[in-house]
Amino acid sequence: MSQKVLIFGGSKNIGYYSGLRLLEKGATVCYQLRRPNIFDNDEEMQKYITSGKAIIIPGDALKEDDVRRAWEKAAEDGVPVDTCIFTVGGYPSFSITKGFVQDPHNLCTACMLNVLATMPRDAPPKLIFLSSVGLTKETHKAIPFALKPVYGVMLKVPHNDKLGMETAVAYAAGWTWKDVPPEGVLPEGWRARLPESGFEKHVVLVRAALLTDGKSKGDKEGNKAYRVSQEELGGYTISRRDIAHFIVEQALQEWEKFEGKVLNVGY
């Protein structure tokens, strides 16, 4: 595999597992990391860093200049980035006065806007990014009843953030989009930071069911281990490793089949 991939959010979880899969297939994987030493004791990752196949680029995706530098650094050998994987995510914490909060409240949205504002214009890369099921009133109806409190209360702030992120990418892809986040998630004038709508056509949106730390069923059972659909699935969970399995073994392998689609993935 001669792919060059730039990952935002690759220090752990889905971005990490996706990166390892790609490295095993021979891809060059560039990671923008706020903590560039996070892989220092990771023996598996170290062999790819030593060989030059895994490239660490220090930086914070919340800073536009850092993201611009990541694109430039990743392509400084003359080989452009052909795939961008975005798995940035926050974890809500509980505040007695405010309930479940995330800092910043629009983490994914702000980081994605930086990615879209700085990505190459002459040959935009493939963009595959992670979101969640149950973000809107309509999709919330499809999730299992037992999970509705989790989605409606605990995950409300990060889900509003993901809705903002989706809205920004929908604009970039030229999609018709009706679901928008609450006021304050997308900053004022955000469209002015981007080219006109439709400048990034090579997009796949992955909406995952409730994420777990289970093993990859896909490695044993193949693609039938989980469901992938443009329709609401109503499933309970999906392991982070299986989302990585879908990204690398299906979405990127059969890009023409999935490009331009919003996909729900779950068991």
Automatic annotation (TrEMBL):
InterPro entries in the cross-refs: NAD(P)-bd_dom_sf
Protein name (database record): Uncharacterized protein
